[in-house]
């Protein structure tokens, strides 16, 4: 994984979590396995979307991924480190860091000035949760992204999120978040993100999480199926609108 050496066994208080034949401080993987270990737990995809506009075609790179959740940690703190690395990759990619290369051997990520949208269930809340929060914070605050849509006045919000806490549906442990209208999952965390580039003009945004008095509530709550995966998902859709004429 970029920026990481072979994972080491660092949690040594529970011997049952250490593999047979290994000791505290040992590498988790063999050198051969580590050389072949992929960064992506699922994928990292750059999908160039060609959009016709009155002034001609524009290309927006849709950068999507679904990093592993930073939970179920083993003695090497594996998932926390991997989640951090998977998110950090996108920051490196939009900065065109030269450690990465494609199948043709071409190094670097996006070309300078490219328009992009990073999107997905990144399994990382910038304020709280089980993970290493530095990667998501660095990405949200990068000078290459539109910070108005990540940490500013155009950050996606909903009315259903706060109601989820009011009705004790969302996880009570996370009620102390200062931005309850930003959350995107029943865990009470902001895990799902749409992060546009700095050169995209944002006009509106939101989290599709209708409150009980709003249209669409039946899509997130059903008396018999509940309010999670049984009816649709335990995560909520994040959306952002752009004006491509500016």
Automatic annotation (TrEMBL):
SUPFAM superfamilies linked to this entry: DNase I-like
Provenance organism: Photobacterium marinum
UniProt cross-references to InterPro entries, sorted A to Z: Endo/exonu/phosph_ase_sf, Endo/exonuclease/phosphatase
One Pfam family here: Exo_endo_phos
GO molecular function, one term: catalytic activity
Protein name according to UniProt: Succinyl-CoA synthetase, alpha subunit
Endonuclease/exonuclease/phosphatase domain boundaries: 84-235
